């Protein structure tokens, strides 16, 4: 079901102050039976960001999103979001009719919303189809849509009104590579228009490429949040040299003042610090080191995540 909220805010939700589209304070959900799905969550989602809500399956992402939309009552803590009529959400794919066109499906979907004025339904649907790049396929039956088109139609359903915030729960789940690309570029386009996008994913690479900010969840708890750059930037870039003269290379790099030199077979790496890689290359060659390869490696979000949690992560996609 796609939840597109047009009603007033549920109790407990009020517009956040300042520059944030979503703020949560100690937000907690304990299900009957004692399981804590979300544990003291403090989120701050800046307006205008594409905020990746990242975590493996079962880490509490969907439960958090359901609380933000007023669909699940928190056990404790509080949250604020932009006014709910200005929030579009895609929590699970809406059930579209296979034999109806994309346009007819959206008209039916729109008609189910009692607050949406009937007079402007066609214009609203046309604008939403245009927004997701489906105008040319408006009259085509849903069953002939590709996976990517189907998901874009679902996003169009969440964009039937003017939105300040779009919440998408795992929007690329189950899509083929082409559909995944379509949805990722659509998310970037929507964000470029000024809509804040809060998007959950279990794919690190996806969040790294699509988002400006991220929160990393693990077993209901927030492990880290911030800009992608700040999350990855906590670790210094390293220079990596591939050479059969690894011991000599390590000596040269140490002699030049590089720290954290690590020798591993035919590879030597060290913290780059303020050194210029091309100067280091020249120094190595001058010292008689046969340099086969030289690169500067910046830590990825994955390495940061593994460093924070000591666990691996699904990095496909
Ligand atoms: N209605 C419920 N009753 C009891 N436990 C639940 C309920 N909904 C979710 N949980 C549990 O809470 C934890 C968090 O689930 P949640 O669906 O929020 O995680 P998620 O990160 O969105 O994962 P997924 O991507 O698999 O949905 C899980 O262990 C799940 O089994």
From TrEMBL:
Keywords: ATP-binding, Nucleotide-binding, Transport. The keyword Nucleus does not apply. It comes from the Bacteria. Coiled coil: none annotated. InterPro entries: AAA+_ATPase (IPR003593), ABC_transporter-like_ATP-bd (IPR003439), ABC_transporter-like_CS (IPR017871), P-loop_NTPase (IPR027417). Residues 22-244 form the ABC transporter domain. Pfam families: ABC_tran. Residues 1-20 are annotated as: Disordered. SMART domains: AAA. The keyword Transmembrane helix does not apply. One of its GO terms (molecular function) is ATP binding. Residues 7-19 have a biased composition (Low complexity). Belongs to the ABC transporter superfamily. This is ABC-2 type transport system ATP-binding protein. It comes from Nonomuraea africana.
């Amino acid at each position: 079901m796609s939840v597109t909220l047009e009603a007033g805010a549920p109790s407990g939700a009020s517009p956040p102050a300042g520059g944030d589209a979503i703020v949560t304070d100690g937000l907690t959900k304990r299900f009957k039976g004692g399981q804590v799905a979300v544990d003291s969550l403090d989120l701050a989602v800046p307006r205008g960001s594409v905020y990746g809500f990242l975590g493996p399956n079962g880490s509490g992402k969907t439960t958090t999103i359901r609380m933000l939309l007023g669909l699940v009552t928190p056990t404790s803590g509080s949250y604020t979001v932009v006014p709910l009529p200005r929030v579009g959400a895609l929590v699970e794919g809406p059930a579209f009719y296979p034999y109806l066109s994309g346009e007819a499906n959206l008209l039916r979907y729109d008609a189910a919303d009692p607050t949406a004025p009937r007079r402007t339904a066609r214009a609203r649907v046309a604008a939403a189809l245009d927004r997701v790049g489906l105008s040319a396929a408006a009259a085509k039956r849903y069953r002939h849509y590709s996976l990517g088109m189907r998901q874009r139609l679902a996003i169009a359903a969440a964009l039937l009104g003017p939105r300040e915030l779009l919440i998408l729960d795992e929007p690329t789940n189950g899509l083929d590579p082409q559909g995944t690309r379509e949805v990722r570029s659509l998310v970037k386009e929507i964000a470029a228009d000024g809509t804040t996008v809060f998007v959950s994913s279990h794919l690190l690479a996806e969040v790294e490429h699509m988002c400006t900010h991220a929160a990393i969840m693990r077993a209901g708890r927030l492990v880290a949040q911030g800009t992608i750059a700040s999350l990855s930037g906590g670790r210094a870039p390293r220079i990596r040299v591939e050479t059969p003269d690894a011991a000599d290379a390590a000596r040269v790099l140490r002699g030049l003042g590089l720290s954290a030199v690590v020798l591993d077979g035919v590879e030597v790496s060290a913290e780059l610090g303020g050194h210029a890689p091309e100067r280091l290359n020249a120094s190595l060659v001058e010292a008689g080191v046969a340099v086969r390869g030289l690169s500067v490696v910046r830590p990825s979000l994955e390495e940061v995540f593994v460093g924070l949690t000591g666990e691996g992560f699904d990095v496909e996609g």
